[in-house]
Predict the structure of N-acetylglucosamine kinase.
Amino acid sequence: MTRSILCFDIGGTSIRAALAIDGQMPGAVTRFDTPARDHAAFLDRLASLAAALPQRPDAIAISLAGVVHPKTGKLIVANIPAIHGTDLKTDLHRQIGIPVHIANDADCFALAEAVFGAGKGHDIVFGVIFGTGVGGGLVSGRRLINTAGGFAGEWGHGPVVPLMAGDTPIPHFACGCGLSGCLDTVAGAPGLERLHTHLHGKNDTARAILSDWQAGETGPARTVEVFLQLVAGPLAMAVNLTGATIVPTGGGLARNHALVAAIDEAVRPLTLSKPAHPLIVPAASGEEPGLAGAAAIGFQAFLPKER
Ligand SMILES: [Zn+2]
């Protein structure tokens, strides 16, 4: 039986949409501006895409840069007032009349990697994001360890940054989550820039820091060395805790495969399993992991639940 899932990847400025058919990766992508403030306009925009398809899709699946409150079902997505605090799943279902699935973007990334990407053939896949922040999602047996929310696998928060990297003091920077000393403050792209400023008093972009590191410049090399020291311990712990046998990485910093390889080299010796093959690897689920992961969630919802 042919199934089709209309997939959305919803961000603060734009929404990407694509149709996925019969368990495959989503096809051609349509982009449009996010109706940022008006909830009714937001619902109408998504509904109009569903209505424009030649055939009604079987479900809608959404990847979102936010989380779903596990009890109330309401979204926590501060940068999109049109849907922040709303029950988008219920509202969309009411308007369009087909099942609606919503998941956190890091979770969608992890599932996309498990089903279509670098995690294929692995039972436990821990997908991590080194982007504007540090995120993650956990998949076991091609299923997300998260039926609601989006908190599982979020290894970027918690006061874990060591106060010294070698003989260099590292401050506990305040984090957006309300704590301080979270990995998120030093290990995403803004975190790398913050570390570089702390160590050298320079305001360079993450891209420049990494390209200067690869060119062999000593200042950026020190920044990356400290970055690796701070990241490696928590990531090795996360690998031990989850039992993941592969850790696909996404987000802006992970586009630099030399950095991913350096993270892999730093982490593997610190894990209990000390695998001989690369453990921290670049993502391989294509340019639209949010859409791919949403598609996988949509298709899985039609499968019989395992006991
Ligand atoms: Zn935090």
Q: What stands out?
A: The chain has two domains: 4-107+287-300, 121-282. The longest strand covers residues 14-21. The domain at 4-107+287-300 is CATH 3.30.420.40 (Nucleotidyltransferase; domain 5). Residues 218-242 form the longest helix (25 residues).
